[in-house]
Amino acid sequence: MAAYAEDYASFRWDIPEYYNFGTDVVDRLAQDPGRLALRYMSPDGAVRDYTFREIAEASDRVGHALNAAGVVRGDSVLLVLPKLPIWHQAMCGVLKIGAIAIPCSEMLRERDLLYRANHSKATAIITTPELSAVVLAIKDRAPHLRHLFTTEPHEGFSDLSAAMAAAPSGSPAVRTRSDEPALCYYTSGTTGEPKAVLHLHRYPIGHRVTARYWIGLKGGDLFWSTSATGWAKAAWSVLFGPWELGVATFMYGGRFEARRHLEILSSQPITALCAPPTEFRLIAKEDLSQYPMPRLRTAVAAGEPLNPEVIRLFKEETGITIRDGYGQTETVCLVANHPEMTVRPGSMGLPTPGHDVRVLAEDGSEQPAGEVGDVAVRDDAPSIFAGYWQADDATRATRRGAYYVTGDRAYRDDDGYFWFVGRADDIIISSGYRIGPFEVESALVEHPAVLEAAVVASPDPDRGEIVKAFVTLRAGREPSTELAKELQEHCKKVTAPYKYPREVEFVDALPKTSSGKIRRVELRQKEWAKKDA
Predict the structure, then answer these.
(1) Which residue among 74, 110, 119, 120 is least crowded, i.e. fewest CB within 10 A of its CB?
(2) pLDDT exceeds cutoff 60 at 67
């Protein structure tokens, strides 16, 4: 604790006027030709190492290819890519030319991608042949989208690999200001379309705090974050955070399977691990004694609170305490169980250096110990988002005086530790995914059998929460198991499949306010009351 207190008290941000992650980090590290940046394992188990020099040169070629196609500084570029090394190369290449990188999940459906393309006025998209169908489905309805690239030859697309091979050597980089837009994530909203979280070029610097003071990375580490590439967590955990410290990362291109991931941890020299609580819960159900992890020294979980029982089981079998951390798409890691701290299972931990994090009352005053309030951070750190793109009112609604209010509720104990209570809104966090009820409700009411729908979080022992839908039917339609399955499949087709309701309950009517607004809170309380019963 003494080390933490010293780090927190002495920390100062040092943000230069000009900064670009691609040039100031990747190109600098590339000066050592043999320095490892990435170890990639394909689903079939083949392993390929990439040096920072290889990443730097490939990202230069991506930048040149985009420039040659007419993509310029300030343009938006959608990256719809699975877990492949080209994702790292493309992200850095987009940043180098001063364009705005927009990582998108490979699970997005036509509606999701069309909204992102049109809202951001994206001029280019990079994807794979396997994911090309959804791009072709939207291209004629996205007027700004002029340049379509696939990572390999595919009809209707420009071949990025050929464009990279034909590109000149040398850097295409422009000199970007640290306060210039660089990156945008789309995150679920409660009452409307996804919000566009805009970050500036200084944002990766903020993740030095994430990597050093929460994960505890240091020279010689090989860090594995299991997150998929379309999420904010991937950008900071497989790119910005570790590379800001010069630490190599590991990426596995396959899907999560508890035993397969344990085999990788046993066979690869991975020293640090970050995974969502859902994965740790499933891993803890396996016989961990069969999977020795001699090199692993630290493990962290993010996305939702981790059960104390899972922390205990993992500790008993591996000797490693899984440490929770708390952050958002809008921020870096704000509160964490730091490496030198004694973990209080279930606690979010203490604020990370550089962040004045408090629990506020409605009037902006700080809550006393033990009193629940809104988690808020002083809005003067470079790690806080610039705002919701093209949504000034939504941005202003998150500010309370000098603080950004996160939308999460918590309390602090007498020693200053934060304890998570819940979301202040209706966002559902399932297996680490943030899911807005509006998106699922909109998909449901498109089905001809559905009159109205309300979607809430329901507790689940493995996923933390699941999406549950309460549905009223149109006249002439009757509830049935078959119809519930039909609605689930309909949602998978209309929106990203991870959003579909895992439970569907048919009801005669939905609870509403006097003005006719559906009271999701009443339904949510009903679900969580079952857990406590």
Answers:
(1) 74
(2) yes
